[in-house]
Amino acid sequence: MKTCAIVILNYNGREMLKRFLPSICQFSRYDIWVIDNASTDDSVAVLSQDFPELQLIQLSENFGYAGGYNWGLEQLKGNYDFYILVNSDVEVTRNWDLSLIDFLQKNKDYGAVQPKILSAQNRDSFDYAGAAGGFLDSLYYPYCRGRIWNVIEQDQGQYKDTIEVDWASGACFALRADEFHEVGGFDAHFFAHMEEIDLCLRLRRKGLKIGFTAQSTIYHLGGATLDRSSPRKLYLNIRNSLRMIYKNEGTLVFWWIFLVKAGMEFAAGLGYLITGKPEMFSAVFDGYWDFLKSRRLVEKIKFPESKPIKKGPVDLIFWHFMILRKKYFQDL
């Protein structure tokens, strides 16, 4: 069995592949695979002509982030000890992959680890997606060291450590291959967004930890698939977040969280209406409605001796950010 497969998911990412694959080819020590989600551009031709050394898995249709990785990694099952999943819009640096795998090899109680993620556009700033490690508040709202809501910190060496976090960013993280398959991979119903947090919760339910290490650094462009202001992304985030919470919480706790989140998110939806963005209000409504229609099909987490999920260090990130005006992680 080989040590690690670096796996990149692609969908109509011709320009991303041409821009970012050279750094991955230059600085990576492990096997590189590309899973193509039935692209309709000439991505596959670009891979064949410009990167013939890479190994390709072609899927029959676009299964999204979650389904695409599930189907592709199923073909690699049993061949590697570890996977590094990395977006197609990521630039890597020297020893980025060795550092991630070295962390997991030395820390047997960790199921996954992410690198320090900086912005490819503003290279002295953290990236929105993951930054220096992600956390969840009591309502399961995600935030990061280096990014809370829409405020992004500059990288001034304040997070040059190795720590345990709540979740690792889907932009780039390494994990144990057998654990990925044992917990069922990504929830394919998510299609895209929040699926890495859901996976991390299931790993943690098994008693595994999630890590961040600044020994590995990457640069992420972000928004290559959906812009953060996209109604489609808002819809997916809301629907998938509710599905994730429903799977992980008891009935009474879930409905308490549901009501609080609904009040906050529909208030935000009214704000969208007032400012002339009805499509964003529709995204909020559709996210809740689609979850309610399908919730009976969602299976609760059922691991033997399932471990409780601790969240923190903040109970309500909204309160600290909006009311107490704490914009940076070190102020929390």
Please bin the fraction of helical residues. Answer: 25-40%
Series of secondary-structure elements, N-terminal to C-terminal: EHEHEHEEHEEEEEEEHHEHHHH
Structural class: alpha/beta
CATH class of the largest domain: Alpha Beta
Mean pLDDT: 92
Distance between the termini: 44 Å
Assigned CATH architecture of the largest domain: Alpha-Beta Complex
CATH topology of the largest domain: Spore Coat Polysaccharide Biosynthesis Protein SpsA, Chain A
* Rg calc: 19 Å
- The percent range for strand residues is 15-25%
Number of strands: 13
Put simply, the count of helices is 10
Shape estimate? globular
Structural overview:
Helix content is 38%, strand content 21%. It has 332 residues and is an alpha/beta fold. The protein has 2 domains: 2-220, Alpha-Beta Complex (Spore Coat Polysaccharide Biosynthesis Protein SpsA, Chain A), CATH 3.90.550; 231-331, no CATH class. The strands form 3 sheets. Strands 1, 2, 3, 4, 5, 6, 11, 12 and 13 form a 9-stranded mixed beta sheet that branches. It has a two-stranded antiparallel sheet with strand order 7-8. The longest helix is centred in the last third of the chain and has 24 residues, at 251-274. The termini are far apart. The model has no long low-confidence stretch (mean pLDDT 92). Residues 6-178 form the Glycosyltransferase 2-like domain. Belongs to the glycosyltransferase 2 family. It comes from Algoriphagus hitonicola. InterPro entries: Glyco_trans_2-like, Nucleotide-diphossugar_trans.
